[in-house]
Amino acid sequence: MSAFSALLQRVRPDNFTLALLATVGVATILPCTGRAAAVAGDVTAVAIGALFFLHGAKLPREAIVAGLTHWRLHLLVLCCTFVMFPVLGLLMKPLALAMLTPELYLGMLFLCMLPSTVQSSIAFTAMARGNVPAAVCSASASNFAGIFLTPLLVSALVVQGGGSRSALDAVVAITVQLLLPFIAGQLLRPWIGAWVDRHKPKLKYIDQGSILMVVYTAFSAAVEEGIWRQLGAASLLALVFVCCLLLAAVLWLTAYASRRLGFSREDAITIVFCGSKKSLASGVPMAKVLFATSSLGMIILPLMLFHQIQLMVCAVLAQRYSREPEAAR
User: Fold this and answer.
1) Per the record, GO CC terms (predicted)?
2) How much is the pTM?
3) CA 198, CA 175: separation in Å to the nearest integer?
4) What is the pLDDT of residue 247?
5) pLDDT digits (tens, 9 = 90+) for 304-316
6) Which single residue of 105, 118, 268, 299 has CA 20 to 30 Å from 283?
7) Considering only CA atoms, which of 67, 74, 114 is closest in space to residue 277?
């Protein structure tokens, strides 16, 4: 019974995921429309700017310098995140379109172009006894690179549907709404970094609140467009299956590549956890910048499901790694 309870503790949804589900429920019952939706959109834009300002202020330069010696590891993680994932997204198109609507497949493709997570990648790497400094550097580098690479990949590969912007419009929008606040946070880190580090537990509510606001406005618009008339239980189950299939393929490929390239056990663990994740914290704000509001609900739904699935699966995987002997590959 205790083992079963421990398993439930590892795989149960976290509080933020429960908040996301509650937000979707509120948007379904009380959608934000008209003038209120316009005001909420403006407030959300400011909150997203604050979110990326804090991302910049929290990024330690020392961790980046310390991790630069592991350039092969970082290069492989970036290739997994921004090359392997998009290729898999394109290869799965026939299967995905046979099971999902075109809008949900567009969301899957967008998911494949996002940067890695930061906090969970580092946490799972530490739990599995991997190379934590390298994980900090790789996850941070992935998020920074994603500010540039994600809009370029969206413009190059998402050629139809979703109201995606042109390459120039996407880069300008990302620069103004995400990159400039991020750079401002980095520039001010020498003065505010210590304060930010001390208050990380409290500041996470700004991160999460920004995401919840985007999700609320996105699903409010989606409810107005009739998302729940278009999306039934069978479609949701199919989406969960496709997300699980994608994650399984990525976990196997990252583990296989790290072994074939001769990385140590600690570095291989870092590659698996940093190269297999996609960031909800970056993905939801980016979707708001890159796509039309009317299509946003369908586009971020795959990311929301994938986010929870990756946390549950990686929690179990990290526990398994932690029980392996130090000499195990």
Assistant:
1) plasma membrane
2) 0.79
3) 28
4) 96
5) 889 888 888 888 8
6) 268
7) 114
